[in-house]
Amino acid sequence: MTLYLETEAEEGLLLYEKDGEIHKKPMEPAKGGLRVRVPVHVSPFRYCFLLPEGFLGSHGLEKTLPRYDRFFHLLAGSLPPWWALGTVYYQIFPDRFRQGRKELAPKDGEWLLMGRPIRKKAWNEPPGPEGALEFYGGDLWGVLEALPYLESLGIEVLYLTPIFQSPSSHRYDTEDYLRVDPHLGGEEALEALFQALEKRGMRLVLDGVFNHVGATHPWFQRALKDPESPERSMFTFYPDGSYATFWGVKSMPKLDYASPLTQERFVHGPRAPIRYWMRLAHGFRLDVAHSIGEGGTNRKNARWLRALARAAKEERPEAVVFGELSYDAIPTLRAHTLDGAMHYAGFAHPVMEWLSGRDVHGRPVHLDAQETWRVLWDHYQALPVQLRHSMYTLLSSHDIPRALWRLKGDVERFKLAYALLFAFPGSPAIYYGDEVGLSQPNPYAKWQGDPYCRAPFPWDEKRWNREVLGFIGKLVHLKRTHPVLRLGGLLPSRADKEVLAFKRRYQGQEVWAFFAPKGTRLTLPRGLDLLTEREVEGEVEATYLLFQPL
C-alpha cells in the first residue's frame, strides 16, 4: 500500500506493528505532504506516524507512542462491495409499511402470543403498548406497490426487518427460517419484490436473526421437551432448568454456536438461512450481532460474525453483511468481521443528544457542537479506513424513538439533523415515514421508542409534510450525484463553539458543511449552496449549509 499524509512536516516515519515489534520506515516528500509504500503483511494492519511534533494516530497528535488501539487500522482482503459505499438505505418494518393484499392480514384473535390473543388494528389507529401482539396487515406485495414512490425518492437499498414465519408482528422470534411468513405474501411475494428491485437497479437487505430463535421454533421445542434430543446442544440450559435468552426474554432462546448442529444449520449447511436466501437478497443485517457467540454468551463473537459474513459471500460475492452493534463497534470491525455496522455510538446517539438534549433513554444530556464533533471524529478516525463509507448511518430506527418526536416536532432542527446525516461519511438510512414527517403518538413525558416508533406509514398524502419530503429528496439526490459526499474523506474545520463544521474532500473537490441549531454568521468565498443551488459569497447567515467552493 502507498500511504499519503497531508502535513506541513518535511520529514517523518511510518511506524507499524509486525510480529509484536514496531517497525519504522522513512517517508518521502509528496505533493502536500509525505508518502510511504509498505507491504501489508497482516490484517488488520496497525500503523501511526512519527512527525517532528509527535506521534499521529487515530486520536490525533500525542507526545508518546500511542496504544495500539490508538493506531490507524487498515483491512486487507475481503472488503465491502463497491455498491455499499455511501449508498442510500430505506428501512421498512413490513407489517407497518403498506398493505398490498387485505386477505393476507391476520384476523383478530387468530392465535395466541404469550397466552394472549393477537389484535388486528385499523391502519390509521396509533400503535399501543401491546406491541408484538398488534398487527396492521402490511405485506411484501405492499412494498412492491410502493417501489415507484421509493424509486422517485432516490432510494438505492431496502432493508426489511424480519420477514420469516413468526407469531409476532415484529418477527424477531422466528419459528421457520426457510419460510417467508404467509401473512407477508410468502416466497412468491419476496421473489416478485426481488426481481422488481433488480430491474430498477435497487437492492434488498434482509434481517438475519441468528442470535436466538423463537420459543415456538420446532428445534427449541424438541430441546425443551427432550433432554436427549440432538437439538438440546443448540441452546444453553442451566441446572435449574432455565435457559439462556436474548435480554432475559423467554420467548427468544439464545443459540449456542459451540454446537456443531448450530454451526451446520446457521453457518455451514446449504440450508443455513444466510446462504439459502442469498438467491433473493443482496445482503443481511445481523440482529444483535454483538451478542452472537457460545455457551449463552458472546464468547468467540468475532469468529462467528466472520463465519456468517463469509457464508453469505460464498453464495453471493457482492453481498453486504453489516451488524447491529449497538455500542462500541470499533473492536469488532477491526477484527475483520463485517462490512459495517449500524452507526449508533459514532453518529446517531451523539447527534441526537446534541440536538434534543436527551439521550436515547430520555436522560438529560448537555453536549455543545464541539463536544459532539469530538465524538464523531473519534469514531471516524478509529474505524478501519475501508469501512468508513459502508457504515449504516442513521437517526431513527425501529428500536429507538423517532428523531422528529425526540425534537418535539421541530421541523427545522429535524431538517438540520438529516442534512448532517447526508453530509457525513457513511451510508445514510431513512427510517420509513421520517421523510414525510411521521412521528409517535406517545406524549414526550412517556419516553419510549418501541412500540410507538412503529406506527403505520400514512399513505394519505394530506398527512405528509411536503417540506420535509422535498428536503430529504434533495439530500438523497446530492448524495447520489456528488462523489465528494459519497466517497470523500472527512476533515475538521475551525468553527465557533456552537457550530459543528467539517469538510469532505474527494479528488480535488470539497464540500464544506456547517450546522448551528441557533444560527450562525459565516464569511465564505464564492461558492455554491448545494441545497438551494444558489451562488453565495461573503457574509451568510445559516442554521445549516452544504457549501461547495468555486
From TrEMBL:
It holds the Pfam family Alpha-amylase. InterPro entries: GH (IPR017853), GH13_cat_dom (IPR006047). Keywords: Glycosidase, Hydrolase. Residues 91-479 form the Glycosyl hydrolase family 13 catalytic domain. One of its GO terms (biological process) is carbohydrate metabolic process. The keyword Hydrolase applies. Transmembrane segments: none annotated. One of its GO terms (molecular function) is hydrolase activity, acting on glycosyl bonds. This is Alpha-glycosidase.
